[in-house]
């Protein structure tokens, strides 16, 4: 059994063949799916999908690129839903910062404020965090530690192979491994992967993005978690079944999945 802990099933690119896509994944052993709350505009669709399928869950959150939506989103209305398993994806993303140094710094501070607010919501509602970090490892780690986010824990989605973040495993944080691990230029992640405790590994696609080899360039989908598991098994020199079993147990523990 595999659990795809990060799959944007509410994306328009899945509208035409969602049921076939889910069935294809189930036949391959993918038995649970979590839709992160990355875009408030498609949150209703995410909930509809979760309500229509026993094996689909969702999270509620605001991505760093959609900060202006934070004050408009009624977290309390969604977080009480029986299929809501996390807060996020939230976090910091400095990759697209533009403008003068002062403008960039202002943007960073806005992102940090919204991130901290969502950490506090996670603690209030006792939900784990789904965390997005891009070019912002140091600030992200500091905020997680200063905010005592270990109260709820969470996953570093699409883990960026920054060794500075490895110590967060001791703060009840998990590491989401996706298709990037199969890329030819993923040497850093391949080298860091053995340093992650097995009990802190999770599998994810981040579909429709970051499609693993040999399908890179195509739309990503949950079925492709099988390629990710195979690659992790090869790197760690462990049986495929062991990777499936332990990552499934980890996901069930973190997200309290039935």
SSE inventory with pairings:
Elements: E1 2-4, H1 18-27, E2 30-35, H2 43-52, E3 56-60, H3 75-79, E4 84-93, H4 101-125, E5 129-134, H5 137-146, E6 154-157, E7 173-177, H6 187-192, E8 201-203, H7 225-236, H8 240-255
Parallel strand pairs: 1-2, 2-3, 3-4, 4-5, 5-6, 6-7, 7-8
- Across the major sheet, the strand order is 1-2-3-4-5-6-7-8
Count of helices?
8
Strand content: 15-25%
How many angstroms does the end-to-end distance come to? 14 Å
Number of strands: 8
What does this structure look like?
It contains eight helices and eight strands; from the N terminus they run E-H-E-H-E-H-E-H-E-H-E-E-H-E-H-H. With about 260 residues, it is of the alpha/beta class. The protein has an eight-stranded parallel β-sheet with strand order 1-2-3-4-5-6-7-8. The longest helix is centred in the middle third of the chain and has 25 residues, at about 100-125. The chain is globular and about 50 Å long. The model has no long low-confidence stretch (mean pLDDT about 95).
């Amino acid at each position: 059994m595999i659990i795809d802990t990060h799959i944007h099933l509410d994306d328009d690119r899945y509208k035409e063949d969602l049921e076939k896509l889910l069935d294809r994944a189930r036949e391959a052993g993918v038995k649970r799916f979590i839709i992160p709350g990355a875009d408030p505009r498609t949150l209703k669709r995410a909930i509809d999908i979760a309500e229509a399928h026993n094996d689909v869950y969702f999270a509620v959150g605001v991505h760093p690129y959609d900060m202006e939506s934070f004050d408009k989103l009624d977290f309390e209305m969604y977080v009480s839903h029986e299929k809501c398993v996390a807060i996020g994806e939230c976090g910091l993303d400095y990759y697209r910062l533009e403008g003068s140094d002062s403008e960039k710094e202002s943007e960073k501070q806005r992102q940090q404020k919204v991130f901290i607010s969502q950490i506090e919501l996670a603690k209030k509602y006792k939900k784990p965090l789904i965390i997005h970090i891009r070019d912002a490892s140091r600030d992200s780690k500091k905020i997680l530690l200063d905010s005592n986010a270990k109260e709820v824990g969470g996953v570093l989605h699409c883990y960026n192979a920054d060794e500075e973040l490895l110590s967060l495993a001791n703060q009840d944080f998990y590491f989401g491994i996706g298709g990037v691990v199969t890329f030819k230029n993923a040497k850093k992640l391949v080298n860091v992967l053995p340093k992650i405790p097995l009990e802190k590994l999770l599998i994810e696609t981040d579909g429709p993005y970051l499609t693993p080899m040999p399908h890179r360039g195509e739309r990503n989908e949950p079925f492709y978690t099988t390629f990710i598991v195979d690659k992790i098994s090869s790197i760690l020199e462990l049986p495929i079944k062991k990777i499936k079993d332990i990552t499934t147990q980890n996901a069930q523990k973190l997200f309290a999945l039935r």
